[in-house]
Amino acid sequence: MTATPAAQPKTIVITGATGGVGRGIAIACGEVGWEVWIAARRKTEGERVAGEVDAAGGRGRFVVCDAGNREAVDAALDEILRLSGGIDGIVHNATSGHSPNPCPLADISLDTLRDHVAVGLRGAYLLARKGHAPLLARRGSFLVLTSEAGFEGKARLAPYAGVKGAMRGFVRALAREWGPDGIRVNALAPLAASPAMDAAIENDPALAERVLGRNPLGRLGDATLDIGGAARFLLSDDARYITAHTLMVDGGACPAT
């Protein structure tokens, strides 16, 4: 029997991967030898994560990118295409800096709402718009990080939950539009230990009990081992027949699943 040839290393772009879940996905992709571009605003942190990708066995690279800015997204992807020659997967992980701050709706400013929309939903649109051609060339994969908040809603997190729900709708629509092109589009809803989660618990100490109290596994996920592995699967050829899907990686915590 002839052995199956090893899959070619992929080139993956991850927005906002300077820490937390994005960093975990980057390292997990590096563990299988992929080239991983950290597309983020913070150069020092981004280059550090790129080094961690190298240490994991991949090739880590950094490019400056503000996911909510059209010119920045276009310039970042042009630079990646120039240096790497193609893109196999794009992961939109970047989120608003206001995300870990629970707040009653009456106290939420319009600027805060705009930032959630700009980074989350507009960012997904900008990456998809610019990324379609390179993903088409390699029949690649587009992955959007959403949240259980997009399924069930979250009190005091209305802008975050609203945008995450909208991103799920965007994923399903794009999957149907791009399916004939051979491009898969999915979402992943994680529950993981991260700086954002730590900040949310600090602002709302009862959150930890609410989250873990309904979690059958009784723990937060590990950003690399639990979340990163699942994201890598959706980006890989093993998931070649999966599209328009939101994978919950939350230890069974969300009652909507």
Kindly describe this structure.
The protein has 257 residues and is an alpha/beta fold. It has one domain: NAD(P)-binding Rossmann-like Domain (Rossmann fold, 3-Layer(aba) Sandwich), CATH 3.40.50.720. It is 48% helix and 14% strand. The chain is built from nine helices and seven strands; from the N terminus they run E-H-E-H-E-H-E-H-E-H-H-E-H-H-H-E. It has a seven-stranded parallel sheet with strand order 3-2-1-4-5-6-7, with helices on both faces. Strand 1, helix 1 and strand 2 form a beta-alpha-beta unit. Helix 1 crosses helix 9, helix 3 packs parallel to helix 4 and helix 4 runs parallel beside helix 6. The longest helix has 29 residues.
Mean pLDDT: 91
CATH architecture descriptor name = 3-Layer(aba) Sandwich
CATH homologous superfamily grouping: NAD(P)-binding Rossmann-like Domain
What is the ordering of alpha helices and beta strands? EHEHEHEHEHHEHHHE
- Computed CA radius of gyration, to the nearest angstrom: 17 Å
Low-confidence stretches: 1-5
**What's the β-strand tally?**
7
Largest pleated sheet: 7 strands, parallel
CA-CA gap between termini: 41 Å
Beta-strand content bin: 5-15%
- Determine the number of helices (DSSP H or I, runs of at least 4 residues): 9
Number of domains: 1
CATH topology: Rossmann fold
The computed structural class is alpha/beta
Shape: globular
CATH class: Alpha Beta
Helix content: 40-55%
Widest sheet: strand ordering: 3-2-1-4-5-6-7
Q: Secondary-structure map with pairings?
A:
Elements: E1 11-15, H1 20-30, E2 35-40, H2 43-56, E3 59-64, H3 70-84, E4 89-92, H4 110-138, E5 141-145, H5 149-152, H6 158-178, E6 184-190, H7 195-203, H8 207-213, H9 223-235, E7 246-249
